[in-house]
């Protein structure tokens, strides 16, 4: 049975936030007053929606707004020291990260609103942010054409790090020197970044206004594949099986690019491009996939949200989002909403409206007492000839954070421990589903090869 999921979409033109049931098409509550930048909309642990806002005037510093699920009005307003473009939350909803117009990246604790860290990651505006699957890395893209990876450890072990370097507590004593590299092959603004599963061995795909998508190896820090498209790509979505990825172009087409799938080098679309989806719409601005990867959701400048079947490439549903273009699409499982509503820690400061408790506003960046200048960082090189224990980083990092909160007497430690166990179970189930899909594909391939071999033998016997 398909798990209920919500599609959430926003616009840069103050058209609010639209919510629909992905499978039935029923429209849920529409949230008002939202002018979000691209990558500026996120669901925080299934508890509430958060969005950065475009500046109303040149003198404005911008804002970050919170909405609860059962009210259309803005509940909480935060005013950072500079405009925030991309906004992202980790899967547990314990932290929010934002990318500034100056190239700074900020990390806040959701329960308290406290500014925990600030990194000087880029020399131009940050355009996109995301956490990897085990939440140990924060990946950013920028107008300067670079992709940077920041290690999400909140303890003092990152205070002396330099650009593109990381020393985990478990490895610092063993590593003689860090493995150093930078994802800086794009010649123009980075428009989107996605990362696959596999933790330390994951792949990263980045899109840019230079009309390319680049596939990187996280463990080796090398460019694996460079794919040139007929149009500028503003959005990408990675298939759960990681055989292909989808790239939304400004020409209104959604290109299907090969990762592990076989591409015909003589096709009309370009090397590694399998084909495209199109309904003659305006530019594709954002993409998202359903949990099982069977449905692809696209947002466009024509104000429409389209749902595509990834198997037959047909449109199954269309949602209309008031006036203005769409620039953000997020898919949220409804079970996570039901289980997390109202679970904000009651012992933490909160803003209450009609019985609904939301966290307090985020601390203004200028109030931070942290005087250190943080740089973008990445983990040490993984030797491909050795077995890799890929989970040690996230487990150690999260355990350190829990211990730190316990020392401070924070009741958030128990909540984080529970969320960690839930997350581990969810990831295990997802990995099982992926391996089952891989097994079925491999089994089908073997059966096909066997049948083809038998037919060939029969043909030879007939000829002889």
Automatic annotation (TrEMBL):
Question: How is this protein named in the record?
Answer: WD-repeat protein
Gene Ontology biological-process annotations: DNA-templated DNA replication; rRNA processing
PANTHER family hit by this protein: WD REPEAT-CONTAINING PROTEIN 18 (PTHR18763:SF0), WD-REPEAT PROTEIN 18 (PTHR18763)
What are the record keywords, sorted? Repeat, WD repeat
Q: Where is this region: Disordered?
A: 341-361
Q: Tell me the ranges holding the WD repeats.
A: 119-149, 183-226, 277-318
Source species: Solanum commersonii (Commerson's wild potato)
Q: What residue range is the signal peptide?
A: none
Q: Name one GO cellular component term.
A: rixosome complex
InterPro entries, from UniProt? Answer: WD40/YVTN_repeat-like_dom_sf, WD40_PAC1, WD40_repeat_CS, WD40_repeat_dom_sf, WD40_rpt, WDR18/Ipi3/RID3
Cited Pfam families: WD40 (PF00400)
